[in-house]
Amino acid sequence: MTDYRAPLQDMQFLLYDVFDVEQAWSQLAGMDDLNRELADALLEEAARLTETLIAPLSRPGDEAGVRFDNGKVFTPEGFKPAWETYRAGGWIGFAGDPQYGGQGMPRSLTLMVEEMMHSASNAFCMYSILTSGLALALKSHGSEALKRRFLPLLYSGDCAGAMCLTESHSGTDLGLLRTRAEPLGNDTYRITGTKIFITGGEQDLTDNILYLVLARLPDAPEGSGGISMFLVPKRKLKDDDSPGDANGVSCGSVEHKMGIHASSTCVIHFDGAEGWLVGEVNNGLKAMFTMMNYERLSVGLQGLGCSELAYQKSAAYARERLQSRAPAGAVHPELPADPIIEQPDVRRMLLTQKALIEAGRAFVLYAGMQLDRARYGAEDAKPKARQLSALLTPVGKAFLSDRGLECCLEGQMVFGGHGYIREWGMEQLVRDARIAQIYEGTNGIQALDLVKRRVQANGGEHVGWVLADIRAFVGQHDTVLGDYARLLLAAVDRLQSVTDLVVAEGAADANAGPAAAVDYLAQFGYVLYGWMWARILVAASHHDDQAAGGYYAFRRQLGDFYFRRLLPRAALHAEVIEAGTATLMATPSERF
Amino acid sequence: MTDYRAPLQDMQFLLYDVFDVEQAWSQLAGMDDLNRELADALLEEAARLTETLIAPLSRPGDEAGVRFDNGKVFTPEGFKPAWETYRAGGWIGFAGDPQYGGQGMPRSLTLMVEEMMHSASNAFCMYSILTSGLALALKSHGSEALKRRFLPLLYSGDCAGAMCLTESHSGTDLGLLRTRAEPLGNDTYRITGTKIFITGGEQDLTDNILYLVLARLPDAPEGSGGISMFLVPKRKLKDDDSPGDANGVSCGSVEHKMGIHASSTCVIHFDGAEGWLVGEVNNGLKAMFTMMNYERLSVGLQGLGCSELAYQKSAAYARERLQSRAPAGAVHPELPADPIIEQPDVRRMLLTQKALIEAGRAFVLYAGMQLDRARYGAEDAKPKARQLSALLTPVGKAFLSDRGLECCLEGQMVFGGHGYIREWGMEQLVRDARIAQIYEGTNGIQALDLVKRRVQANGGEHVGWVLADIRAFVGQHDTVLGDYARLLLAAVDRLQSVTDLVVAEGAADANAGPAAAVDYLAQFGYVLYGWMWARILVAASHHDDQAAGGYYAFRRQLGDFYFRRLLPRAALHAEVIEAGTATLMATPSERF
Q1: B266 interfaces chain A, CB cutoff of 8 Å
Q2: Is pTM beyond 0.95 here?
Q3: Are strands B235-237 and B243-246 parallel, antiparallel or unpaired?
Q4: Considering only residues 538 to 567 of chain B, which have any Cβ-Cβ distance to chain A shorter than 8 Å?
């Protein structure tokens, strides 16, 4: 059994060589103390924590699952002490506002830590990132009084967070939700309704839980324009903010799921629970998106984290498992058979994972740097950085989680029959990675958001910025990139023409964008990954091939694999989009 | 919750309209009594049995799983009475030799029944198809005495079968196996060794189990040329062939798996168990392939069966689930929201499933007709039919099970978060369908078999037969097929050129075939499915568009979807193959 090892070298190569984050950090407000030395120390500490404290929880946590007993939820053995250590280390407020007790680290650094957390245990990580995400939404939309009162409790992990959107009849379409809020005066409200699929809705890690709840005021208009957002504690707070009496919040049951068994997914009843309005009346859905967008990139990271572990485990297995001879003759005649890593098809499975992981991590870092610029950058750079972040978020969520399942499936297949039994942990990775494609808005919904709001809404201008950046980068480095420059530019041109098509058709046919959406997101993803590989190859070219035990030569081989065997998928998605809308909508719905 | 409904209309359209099996059956030896009336009656009875008896076992069987207690395995509640009904109906010997009590039905009919069985319950089906498969191997290679003694017991389901190949260090590479066989004289042998991953190796459905075991004689040469095949009963047989004393066979444990929880996967110890040689000494691997090839097509059917149920469930859910408005405006303004089937992306997921299912079922039937011709056809037609069967078997196993997972994933996604929880049964379909890609030789191994033994070994001649048949068919029907004829012929030409490449490169580079294998199988699969769609479209063109409530119009829409949105994948696989071998093999194995 291979234990998780945080890929520090890969992360550091991306941070400092490929992206030069030190330079970027130096231009962010409030990051004066952050430098490579500090960042490396933090990454090493995160590596130690995830490898030794969190990763060992994963398999037993999957077997045990959460236990529901009479309204209470018990996490698997070891989760509570791990939470204590983790929260005491300040990791939940790692990206939090220092004014309220956060560590103030940039997203470009915290994302690397989150990846490690997801590799170590998706289920454990969920309790933490929902708390961080809730804190971000509160910081962005809450009153000063609410922030002062609750942010320190969230950053310290004394209190955990959970987001309450979905109802049984209202998932993707939140405009249908029915939970009610009655005003009690003094900015307090009484919340009544039932929410489902609430991750971390009940647990035994913290004495109190804060819920961000979407609900309707009595006079609210119908649909999504009549939704407000409320902060509701599980237990009322005493004068010293320690948990006091029950607040009319109860957990009705937990779901039995395909995976992430150690993450509680709850039905939560609010029976006149008291809470506070966060943000403006009837503008709750927009405010909630602050949290959702934070989570969305993190859900992409879940796919990446699962992929990294799948790769590590399957590469180790492929080096050890002796079976058959290499096609071109025995590589290890002294052994009864060769390790299966000598088989070309096993290489294909390993290289697919690795090439997608490296590009995915680079993409996350690139997206994180836009988020940092939007938040801490120069004022005049903020609007564009914000728009780029909005453009990249659905790709980060969907494309990374789609590739996450792909990598986990390839990793599982390397194990043959051993991958299907629980013992090796590979099937758990597949089951866990699958949820990342579904929750926080299915990947189909991410694609609709991308095409409608991030592409069609601005006539493709924002995508154009990215494509111009890619063309400029390739132009600067075409000697180093050689044939890959040609392949990447062809993919960029095709994406440009498909973008134009999607924008033009969108004006005439309301179905055109939705019909193209999933393929458009995938095409965009492969082009972005191509750009990431170009950046990695340029950075690797500054190093000697023989250096670091072939580390940089391996980047070159992975890049070659990406451009020749994976980037061609972008053109397939283009071709599917170009097939048009009619083929989807011709059949009457009752015929299916 | 949608119950399984056997797709009788779809099956009958393929059987009688698309393939004219009545005509084909009339040319097979021993099928004089078989006609449409009888076949329909059998299909209807199979539908009734699978819908009402088997399908209700699936979800509870997944929850309960098999129970292992002190060497015994207990199947979930309801399995034993269902087995009694099923076996008493003669279904296990449905394809069996009438000389020994079988029903003598052609594979082109029995495959349709197997698909229903897989839709209803993969786990239950495994106990049955392994018994049928063992009977087939015994019929092909056993002595007359063994056949007379054991075939009736297998056909009647009084005795179940299990195949024992894998050992912990020997899976794909059976040449490494260590189980020993000592001759006792009189053609009996004493078998000693431990086998793992034995499906149905122990259960409580039958009083006795027959194992086909691969083992080595004391003087056997090393490797795969030193393996013989033995028939070993769990309990010795009394003079009347009823089960008697224990025979040194024991079950050490059962595996805990990702899915097919109600199918027992056992560690089986043979401690001097007595058995009989089947076939020739040291030729056991080849003999075992009779059984494995039988199972392989059936494993492809597992993918198809799961897909059919995933489609049925997700189409029903998409028609019922109200969420958001259709992009072009409300379709049902009287409802709070439109059914999600009005969303183009939900259509994409449903049409993808349905287009792959229809082509998959047609392919199975086409392959089944080759198997029938090889077994019951005119003598001079048998060799070619056998070679075609050998060519189609790995595609049937791997491509259908790959598409099976794809369809189950799409079906699950239609449900959003509800697809991830156990309640709706969609996540079980994903977990169950996954094994079909792994067992009976992983899909990577199927692809190696295809490229090496079925393509390179004959210089691509056998693929050439298929491509010539496609070209001839398209030539005859190009008026009906219109633009699809052009698309299909282009795909055929590309497959021809890739085949030539794979054959030519194979002569110079032992890695070339293995490096291309998985993509070659996929490319071949998409071309074959394109042919199937061409045949379906031609058959549908003989019917009025308005007929049968739009049934034939829907075939046309599905065909259009296939040619425009799915067939383009074939060219992607070609491009990947053309990228060559170097990109896979450049990295030293220790670098991964």
Answers
A1: no
A2: yes
A3: antiparallel
A4: 549-550, 553-554, 557, 560-561, 564-565
